[in-house]
UniProtKB/TrEMBL annotation:
Gene responsible for this protein: Ccdc81_2
Gene Ontology cellular component annotations, sorted alphabetically: microtubule organizing center
Domain CCDC81 HU: 57-129
Protein name as it appears in the record: CCD81 protein
Highest taxon above the source species: Eukaryota
Residues passing through the membrane, by range: none
Family matches, as Pfam families: HU-CCDC81_euk_2 (PF18289)
Length: 138
């Protein structure tokens, strides 16, 4: 499963197999695939994340977000779009601000590397059996 934030990227949960000694672990972990206009990422590097082609990616559910915030859908859409544009323009200017996603993690830029750092609770909430492996891989 995944959620597309147009102009920013895609959050998804992927499954990976890991072989440790003679055991095989299947681990679910969160990933973020950056999908910003190259104009904003000119001097930055970022990790390449590949979300499998069979992952179900859906656009952000503005209808649900509108209900949850009690704001009109159009206002929510404009707010999300303007926030992404503002963050992108800061990156273009070389201003490396952190972009916090509640209960998920922080998109930050350090030493000209833009990457998503997921909160411990986000990772362990997805994977209860092998959370230590998921944490190391994330």
């Amino acid at each position: 499963q995944g959620v597309l934030l147009t102009g920013l990227g895609t959050f998804a949960v992927i499954q990976e197999q890991f072989h440790i000694k003679e055991e095989v672990y299947v681990v679910r972990r969160p990933v973020f695939q950056i999908d910003m206009d190259m104009l904003y990422l000119q001097k930055l590097s970022y990790p390449t994340v590949v979300i499998p082609g069979n992952a179900r990616i859906k656009p952000l559910n503005y209808k649900w977000l509108s209900r949850a915030t009690l704001l009109p859908r159009r206002v929510v859409e404009d707010c999300v779009r303007e926030t992404i544009l503002l963050y992108s323009s800061h990156l273009k200017k070389g201003e490396h601000l952190s972009f916090v996603f509640k209960d998920i993690g922080v998109l930050s830029c350090k030493d000209d590397v833009l990457c998503m750092r997921f909160f411990h609770e986000c990772v362990t909430g997805l994977e209860s059996k092998a959370s230590h492996i998921a944490l190391l891989r994330t």
